[in-house]
Amino acid sequence: MTGTYTEYSVQNPLNREPPVQTLVSSFFTPENISYDRNHGPIPHLAADTHTVQIDGQVPNPLSLSVHQLQTDFPQHEVNCALECAGNRRHTMRTLLKEVEGIDWGDAAVMNCTWKGPRLRDVLHRAGLTQDSCQGLYVAFSCYAVQCQEDDWFGSSVEVERCLDEDMDVILALEMNGSPLTPNHGYPVRVVLPGVAGARWVKWLDRITVQDTESSNFYQRHDYKVLPPEAVDSASAEPFWDRTPAMCDMPINSVVGVPGDGDTVHLSGSGTLEVKGYAVPHGADGPVTRVQVSVDGGQAWMDAEIEGSSVERKWCWVLWRVRVRVERGAGKEVLSRAFDRGGNVQQEHSQWNLRGVGYNGYGRARDLTII
């Protein structure tokens, strides 16, 4: 593993999101408008010398080059959304109460095609079988750069998820038909459909099968929905080890157009076009229905889910609807989503100190309609 150079720093990592209006203009998110979430610098690694170690409780530990990952295993393609656990944190802190963390708006999410070998095939090559893995975890690590709160970055999920073919877990080498870029984990990252982005380790260099969760700070002391009584760092401390790490992302929808504070003109027919995105809960996709309200949630109108020929289980959907709304200031548009698993987006979700997993109604607030 040789890094040619790094961009940004531990003190000033790259964290950004596009305007949500831009984000919802394309079903597949182009790399140049995708969000970036980092806890340290971005390494530029050389694929020809990079290896991924598979070790821990496996009969046959492996060291695989990127070329071997490309050629020794069938390549699998999966269309899925990648969402930051802190997506919509701004809404939680402004509608509920103050939280800790980056002030993400509604656009820390992207929908892409990812390609690479299935992790289950790699684990099988290492001798792991369904019968031998009860109660184990798969830990993913990147030791290429130091992070803000730890010397490395890591995550873990239960091994059953990685061995289940229907979960579509892959070691991605490509995004949207091209090699990964350094920002998105080149030369290899783990893709865990339906799971919080914090678990999708970039610049992956080690996979360890073990009987405990990852010991990394970001698995143990971040990205958890702490109980409401954890109101500051001191009161949160007893809860970190008792609170499960975030895994599945919740059902969600967002109003992308119009945006908060916009002044918009009704059409000649007296209607307003509303557009946005929606994502399912974890593995419960696809999203089956999106509704919009302009009267505070008293009445709801079905939105049209835009057509696409791709498998939508792990994807977001883009939706649109024309609504009749009275002219005036201080108007609000709400959205809510439904998925195949029966999950329904609620008005608010649980407040938590780290502001993660917010999935209250999508909202465009303080609109002026003329």
Features:
370 residues, mainly beta, Sulfite Oxidase, Chain A, domain 2, Immunoglobulin-like, 2 domains, 5-stranded mixed sheet, 7 helices, 10% helix, 32% strand
Would you kindly provide a written description of the structure presented here, covering whatever features stand out?
This protein is mainly beta. The protein has two domains: 5-237, Oxidoreductase, molybdopterin-binding domain (Sulfite Oxidase, Chain A, domain 2, Alpha-Beta Complex); 252-369, Immunoglobulin-like (Sandwich), CATH 2.60.40. Helices cover 10% and strands 32% of the residues. The protein contains seven helices and 22 strands. The strands form six sheets. Strands 4-3-13-7-8 form a five-stranded mixed β-sheet. The chain is globular and about 65 Å long.
Widest sheet, order of strands: 4-3-13-7-8
For the secondary structure, the number of strands is 22
Overall geometry: globular
Strand count, sense and barrel status of the largest sheet are: 5 strands, mixed
Instruction: Please give the radius of gyration in angstroms.
Output: 21 Å
Distance between the termini: 59 Å
Unreliable sequence segments: none
Derived structural class? mainly beta
Strand residues, percent: 25-35%
GO cellular component, one term: mitochondrion
GO molecular function: heme binding; molybdenum ion binding; molybdopterin cofactor binding; sulfite oxidase activity
Pfam families: Mo-co_dimer (PF03404), Oxidored_molyb (PF00174)
Cofactor: Mo-molybdopterin
